[in-house]
Design goal:
By secondary structure, the chain is mainly β. Strands 1, 2, 3, 4, 5 and 6 form a 6-stranded antiparallel β-sheet that branches. The model has no long low-confidence stretch (mean pLDDT 83).
Amino acid sequence: MSFSDVTRGQGSFVGRTKARDFYNSFKEMKTVTDSIYEPTGSNEYSAFSVMGKTGFKLRGTKGGEITNGITSGSIYNVGLSYVSASGGVSVNLYR
């Protein structure tokens, strides 16, 4: 079929808009305060932030443990398999 044979309404649609990158845009947040939380399976979160300086223990989904060295309020794009928060510290999990 040549171009001249195509009438209005025929032919395929060609999308010309670039897909938007939603890096660092999260749709859900869970806050862990003074408790232990172990997300499993489809309930895993892909990022976290810590509000406070000490009193937390975090374990990454692929291993490794974090107990200090975190900047309060910064978002880290690391999934966690274990979260423990105590002493007024809160850990926000993002998905």
